[in-house]
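Input.
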Amino acid sequence: MQIRLASSIDLEPLSLLFDLYRQQLNQPSDYPACHAFLKSRLSENDSMIFVSIRDDEMVGFIQLYPSFSSLCLAPVWYLEDVFVKPLYQHEDVVSQMFQKAQFLAQSIGVLLINHFRVC
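Output.
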């Protein structure tokens, strides 16, 4: 399994996954809006999106948003979105993507914050 930062070449499959993610959270399917949203995130470089690829198929993603923490006195990335196709959920894909994000964050001096942890 390959885990890497998303780029513009990932826009189509990532948009499909993002639409599935939103549907899972009881939002109506809206591929065009998902595509436009992600295209903006990627072109404006205002979020970090890690994708998981297995056998040339995108099977999951996590999206992090950069910010700063007054409490921690440091730059942080907040984990906002996580999705893995149901067929691959038993393979610990989320943990692997999170570890990759954690490694990159640590290498550049950023704290990685998920919804369950504070400094």
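The chain has a mean pLDDT of 91.
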